[in-house]
Amino acid sequence: MGNIKNYLGIAGGCLLALASCAGNKTASRTVSGLDPAAFDTTLNGKKVELITLKNNNGMEVCLTNYGGRVVSLCVPDKEGKPTDVVLGYDNIRQYADTLNSPSDYGSSVGRYANRIKNAQITVGGKVYKLRVNDNENTLHGGGNTGWLHQVYDVQSKTDSSVTFAITAPDGENGFPGTVKATATYLVKNNNTLDITFKATTDKETVINMTNHSYFNLNGDPSKVGTDEVMYINADKFTPSDAKYIPTGEIRDVTGTPMDFRKPHAIQETITDTTFDQIHNATGYDHNWCLNTFKNGKGDDTQVAASLFSPKTGILLEVFTNEPGLQVYTGNFQGTGIPCKHGIKYPKHVSVCFESQKYPDSPTKIVQKTKGWEISNPYLKPGQTYYSHLVYKFSVKK
């Protein structure tokens, strides 16, 4: 989701207290072409590493505990060729350099994904001022001091799963409560990446976690990806103002470029700048109200969204228990920064599917905005936050 440089800011240069990497240590490259030694280091006093998960059907997922990130995700295309379908960097130096290569690529975002208006929340009748990092708002928990730029502990790992853990102190970026959270990534034999987020708190707070992987299924992220075919299982969306803050309205998608109930190529509607929402965002960067969430519960067995590449035959289906899905089409890419394997990503090269509470839910809940009650982000002591996100891959020939 948008405006990466703005929200990360320039203070992140202090993170680059990197110890020397693996020196003469050698390791086999991953299927996606990554060198694990380029991630083997110490950052802010904590060990950082590349973790590789695999199944028996040609799927490989590489992750780093820096930000709990997906670095690469390889699945077979229609010819059986391993294809890396996510964007990112191929070394820890660029991920940690928030001054020169700011990015939320593949991260486990917390403690609050998306934007909070005017960088403040009300919890238990008390107003808390948050870190400002996106215009006058808070985005992704505070940007370069949020969880996406913290080193998670590796709580457990196997050949097919890893659990990252983080403890966020009371007052972190202005948020109340000490929060203990985990992000578990599991690769299944049906070529599914199953992600579970959990959190507890010692003081009432707000929680909204998601994964921020940028998908390009075409096999060539040097080219625009808007020829991919997208489906979103939603009758309504939440319009935003020019600063990406939801207005509070919940609008029907019928007759607008927001209607993806019938799958179509993104390029068919993303160029319609006569529509204010696309004009303001220079593409899609919006929350859809999922039809898979009914009666206060999300059905994570039903497809919430999908993306298909006619070039590779790769189909991605997204499942979640959350009420909303922020879909972002890489509108702030095209910076000219060399990324994974030296490729410079163009604008609109990718699509993010961020399952979550609606953006700015704390404000709207306090204001009792109609229709937003299903997106309650508040977590109290004794409760456990649970969010489920699934990326399932298959091939259509």
Structural overview:
The chain is mainly β and 397 residues long. The protein folds into two domains: 4-212, Beta-galactosidase, Chain A, domain 5; 220-375, Beta-galactosidase, Chain A, domain 5 (Distorted Sandwich). It contains four helices and 31 strands. It has helices at 4-8, 92-96, 276-281, 361-366, and strands at 41-43, 46-48, 50-54, 60-64, 69-76, 82-84, 107-109, 115-116, 120-123, 126-129, 138-139, 153-157, 161-168, 179-188, 192-201, 205-206, 210-212, 214-215, 229-232, 234-238, 251-252, 264-265, 285-290, 293-294, 297-298, 305-308, 314-320, 324-328, 351-356, 378-379, 385-395. The strands form nine sheets. The chain has a nine-stranded antiparallel β-sheet, with no helix packed on it. The protein has a six-stranded antiparallel β-sheet with strand order 18-29-28-23-20-21. A four-stranded antiparallel β-sheet has the order 3-4-5-6, with no helix packed on it. The radius of gyration is 19 Å and the shape is globular.
